[in-house]
Write a structure and sequence with these properties.
The protein is α+β, with helices and mostly antiparallel strands. It is built from 13 helices and 7 strands. Helices cover 56% and strands 12% of the residues. The strands form 2 sheets. Strands 3-4-2-1-5 form a 5-stranded mixed β-sheet, sandwiched between helices. Strands 6-7 form a two-stranded antiparallel ribbon.
């Protein structure tokens, strides 16, 4: 599928979510293998987004679902997190959420929101939590798919190496972990033989070749067996120091934004009506613009509707 066609399909899917769920999508990106840089030709498009409801949704005594998951359509997998949920996860320095902000493919982008949310992500970034997450992921994938097997699924090496190299990235204090696998390899993988073996697997996967079951790759297995215990023995990195009130203030601004725009539209209507009604008395208009008479004009009604709902866009 061509890039323009994908963007059109994704944007249509996001617009459908907004219309059906009465929400506003603030940010949407590609996640998974296509964002990591080692997708096959037939890999799904994993679209992830952040959204906000109108104020009344939050003013309820009931717990409400804070995730939207659309049915998978062909190769399009679309799901998102509500803003309050996302901020709670950001407070915990949730690695998948941080990775979304680093995605090389962005489908929806509110510049102000993205800049402010990115600044919060940097403030609440916890090397300790992220290191623990990636190390746990690397060990789990190694244990479940590769360790002690005479034959392995070769693509599973990529799902062990990405979190392993993320741990090295954090160990070297290079900041938040990037999304692109190639950037991790280039920056922290010094072993030439291991890099060559990985490059071959990535090239084969990108070319559409099915990485079937095969005997283990010696260079990759040897690296994993040495690197996992080395990383486990390291001292824990630093933790985050963000203030939760910053998250609260950010949430209030964006959760109330849609309603404030709507209220501003209503107020502006009454100001406009009052202004038009005063014109005949000042000798600057016709009586047809008097109070209440304006609604007989089609042009006036169209303009009025545009003013009221301008903030909804």
């Amino acid at each position: 599928m061509h890039g323009n066609e994908v963007f059109q399909r994704v944007r249509h899917a996001l617009a459908q979510v907004e219309a059906e769920r009465n929400v506003r999508v603030l940010f949407a990106c590609e996640s998974g293998s296509r964002a990591w840089g080692f997708a096959s030709r037939d890999s799904d498009y994993d679209v992830r987004f952040l959204y906000v409801h109108r104020r009344d949704w939050y003013l309820s005594v009931e717990d409400r679902r804070d995730v939207i998951e659309q049915p998978i359509a062909d190769d399009l997998d679309v799901s998102g997190w509500e803003l309050r949920k996302a901020l709670r996860l950001l407070r915990k320095s949730n690695p998948p959420l941080l990775e979304w902000l680093k995605s090389p493919v962005v489908y929806r982008h509110d510049p102000v929101f993205a800049a402010e949310f990115g600044a919060l992500a940097a403030e609440f970034y916890s090397p300790r939590r992220c290191f623990a997450h990636y190390l746990h992921m690397a060990f789990g994938n190694w244990r479940d798919y590769l360790r002690g097997r005479e034959e392995v699924s070769l693509k599973k090496y990529l799902y062990v190496f990405r979190p392993l190299l993320a741990c090295r990235w954090i160990e070297r204090q290079l900041g938040q972990v990037p999304m692109l696998f190639a950037q991790l390899v280039e920056s922290v993988l010094d072993e030439a033989d291991v890099r060559a073996a990985l490059d071959e697997l990535v090239a084969r996967k990108q070319a559409g070749e099915e990485l079937a079951v095969a005997p283990p790759v010696e260079a990759l297995t040897r690296f994993i067996e040495a690197e996992l215990p080395r990383l486990e023995a390291l001292n824990e990195p630093d933790d985050a120091a963000g203030e939760v009130e910053e998250l609260n203030g950010f949430f209030r601004r964006y959760a109330l934004a849609l309603n404030l725009w709507f209220a501003a539209g209503i107020v502006s209507v009454f100001l406009l009506l009052g202004f038009l009604a005063s014109l005949p008395r000042l000798g600057l208009g016709e009586d047809s613009l008097g109070w209440g008479a304006q609604f007989g004009s089609t042009a006036f009604n169209v303009t009025l509707a545009a003013v009221v709902f301008a903030g909804k866009a």
